[in-house]
Design goal:
Length: 398
């Protein structure tokens, strides 16, 4: 079995953009499987075939494919000539001494030129396997389903399918700038947009040297995990402590949180525009904390003309936590750190800041200079394609 057949679902629907989506997916699969002796990745009649070299191990390739967005499902596949005897013989050869209480053969004709219809092929191939193995056929609840796909010049057969991560190929939907704190929500928000085909650059605001470097260490680890889903990630580390100090000098305590957020949004906007991102992404959730009332969310959003995408806006905390556990970001996010929000943060922030009051408070600040300097001074770190196996050991070393 020297192939993997990859099926995509949603991207099949994209009309005239379809070839472009597929070539994205093919490229992403190529990059994700680098170093595993994959000989070719090629589009083939509504599927993608991955051709494995002699050194390739299916399990290793599979682990990479679980993280390539745009894949609906995939299976380890063998190839046979377009001939009933040959297909049955190849299947029996690869089944070896496999045993099963029941089986069925399911045929799909990608190319309709083969002279027999699918049910007929199922009967003929199934009959030969039944004869050779003595297995029971069960069309409704088979323990083993052998799928045969009739292509133009050969047939593929698979014994099992794995679910892919779904979504759209990374990069197909353009670029976004994700505001990444060290918390639970924002990495999940970034991941959700990546799943929708956006490639994400990450922006983190830290208060070093006023606070420790812990939040930066956390976002580096989060960036590593997120990089297992996209090939390359840029992380922008923005020094925010001095800005907060200036805010404290002029802005009344209850308004500070909203003013901090508006400054974050402006700086992220600047970075996004400089680096080709078309929207900002946050982990905001309605009603979760003081800065996330409808009033405050809209006053914060007024600081940018870019759309702010909030993929978690209607989710409960438990749902977000469950997703972050699945992703592998939860255990990083819950490590205690000193978030910049803890610095100079008032005990009782306003939950209903008005735009008028906030703009009045900001009028005493050199906003443009603060934003320009912070954006220009951001440290940029690069993360290139990583696998989870590579992320974990680095974590263990601390
Ligand atoms: P999270 O779990 O993502 O930190 P939260 O529930 O703590 O979210 P807030 O602290 O109000 O909520 O932050 C709302 C959003 O603002 C975050 O999801 C993130 O997108 C952005 N944000 C907050 N703090 C930072 C930061 N230090 N650096 C970058 N983005 C931030
Ligand atoms: Mg937070």
């Amino acid at each position: 079995m020297k192939s993997i057949v990859v099926h995509y679902q949603e991207i099949a629907l994209k009309g005239r953009n379809r070839p472009w989506f597929i070539s994205r997916l093919v490229n992403n699969i190529r990059r994700a499987t680098a170093g595993l002796d994959v000989r070719a990745v090629r589009p083939l009649m509504g599927r993608i075939e991955i051709v494995l070299g002699p050194e390739a191990r299916y399990e290793l390739v599979r682990d990479r494919l679980f993280r390539v967005f745009g894949i609906a499902n995939f299976g380890h596949a063998g190839r046979a000539p377009l001939d009933i005897e040959a297909i049955a013989a190849a299947i029996l050869g690869d089944l070896g001494d496999t045993e099963t209480p029941s089986f069925r053969v399911s045929v799909k004709r990608a190319d309709k030129r083969f002279p027999m219809k699918s049910p007929e092929i199922e009967r003929e191939v199934g009959g030969r396997i039944k004869l050779a193995k003595g297995w029971k056929v069960d069309l409704d609840h088979a323990a083993l389903t052998i799928t045969v796909e009739m292509m133009a010049s050969e047939a593929f057969y698979t014994f099992a399918k794995d679910r892919g991560p779904g979504g759209l190929p990374t990069g197909a939907s353009g670029k976004v700038a994700c505001l990444l704190s060290g918390g639970i929500d924002s990495p999940v928000a970034a991941w959700r947009m990546m799943k929708r085909g956006c490639s994400g650059l990450l922006v983190h605001f830290h208060s070093y040297p006023f606070l420790s470097r812990a939040s930066q260490e956390k976002v580096r680890e989060l960036a590593q995990v997120l990089t297992t889903y996209q090939q390359h990630t840029r992380l922008f580390l923005v020094a925010f402590g001095e800005i907060q100090r200036q805010v404290v000098l002029t802005v009344p305590a209850p308004l500070r949180v909203v003013v901090y957020r508006r400054l974050m949004v402006r700086i992220a906007d600047r970075i996004a525009r400089t680096h080709g991102a078309q929207a900002l992404v946050t982990g905001e959730v309605i009603g979760q904390v003081a800065s996330q009332t409808l009033e405050n969310i809209s006053v914060i959003a007024a600081a940018t003309d870019l759309p702010i995408l909030r993929p978690l806006v209607g989710m409960d905390k438990e749902e977000i936590v469950a997703e972050s556990i699945r992703l592998g970001t939860y255990e990083i996010s819950v490590v205690p750190d000193q978030d910049c929000c803890q610095l100079f943060t008032p005990k009782h922030p306003a939950t209903r800041a008005t735009r008028f009051a906030v703009e009045e408070a900001e009028s005493h600040l050199p906003i443009e200079t603060m934003v320009a300097e912070a954006a220009a001074g951001a440290a940029i770190e690069h993360f290139s394609f990583l696998t989870m196996a590579e992320v974990r050991p680095q974590r263990a070393d601390g």
